């Protein structure tokens, strides 16, 4: 459990960072209001987090299964 807390802090902190590539950023900065830029940023972060959540969930259930069988 002690190892999960720093990982959780890292994930929560990372979601507030910018995730755009240089070309996307250059195109989206010229728009007024920056709504599209926020949408693209959130989409990139969403797509990045899904595999980590799935693998983490699988590892958790595998750990519980193996711990319970001993």
Rounded to the nearest angstrom, the distance between the terminal CA atoms is 20 Å
Low-confidence stretches: none
Helix content: over 70%
Question: DSSP strand (E) fraction?
Answer: under 5%
Radius of gyration: 17 Å
Question: How would you summarize this macromolecular structure in one to three sentences?
Answer:
With 70 residues, the protein is mainly α. It contains three helices and no strands.
Task: Please describe what this structure looks like.
The longest helix is centred in the last third of the chain and has 35 residues, at 35-69. It contains three helices and no strands. The model has no long low-confidence stretch (mean pLDDT 78). The protein has 70 residues and is mostly helical. The radius of gyration is 17 Å and the shape is elongated.
């Amino acid at each position: 459990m002690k190892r999960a807390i720093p990982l959780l802090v890292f994930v929560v902190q990372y979601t507030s960072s910018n995730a755009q590539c240089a070309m996307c950023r250059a195109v989206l900065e010229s728009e007024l209001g920056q709504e599209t830029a926020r949408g693209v940023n959130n989409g990139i972060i969403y797509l990045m987090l899904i595999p980590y959540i799935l693998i983490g969930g699988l590892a958790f259930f595998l750990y519980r299964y193996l711990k319970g069988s001993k």
